[in-house]
Amino acid sequence: FLAALVALNMDQAELAAAAEGLTVEKPEALLDEPRFMAIIDLRIDAKNQQLARFETIKKYRILRNEFSQATGELTPSLKVKRNVVLERYAGLIEDMYAE
């Protein structure tokens, strides 16, 4: 099944949360807020509605940081370095498939 690691744009996340009446001191605090996680669930469900069943995201995990060149997850042309991501997030990936 399809599983995803989701790296949020925290500026956009904060705007989406504010639109739902949810405010926090730091945008990163949204990741610990159950109401915000419900917003993410709804957004992923909405995207899944546009896809064939075999294309839908069954499980996902939210990452605390965006991918970047500085952390080694992106190339200079902003392509994801899959081997780095697989190594760095192996535990999260294994957890999704173990459930």
Number of helices: 4
Helical proportion, percent range: 40-55%
Strand neighbour order, sheet with most strands: 1-2
Rounded mean pLDDT is 92
Q: What global shape is seen?
A: globular
Question: Sheet with the most strands?
Answer: 2 strands, parallel
Order of helices and strands: EHHEHH
Secondary-structure-based class equals alpha+beta
Number of extended strands? 2
Gap from first CA to last CA: 12 Å
Q: What ranges have pLDDT less than 50 throughout 5 or more consecutive residues?
A: none
Based on CA atoms alone, the radius of gyration comes out at 15 Å
Strand content: 5-15%
Describe the structure.
By secondary structure, the protein is an alpha+beta fold. Helix content is 42%, strand content 13%. A two-stranded parallel sheet has the order 1-2. The chain is globular. The mean pLDDT is 92.
What labels would you give this structure?
99 residues; alpha+beta; 4 helices; 13% strand
What is this structure, in a nutshell?
Helices cover 42% and strands 13% of the residues. With 99 residues, it is α+β, with helices and mostly antiparallel strands.
Topology of helices and strands:
Layout: E1 2-7, H1 10-19, H2 34-49, E2 57-63, H3 82-88, H4 90-98
Parallel strand pairs: 1-2
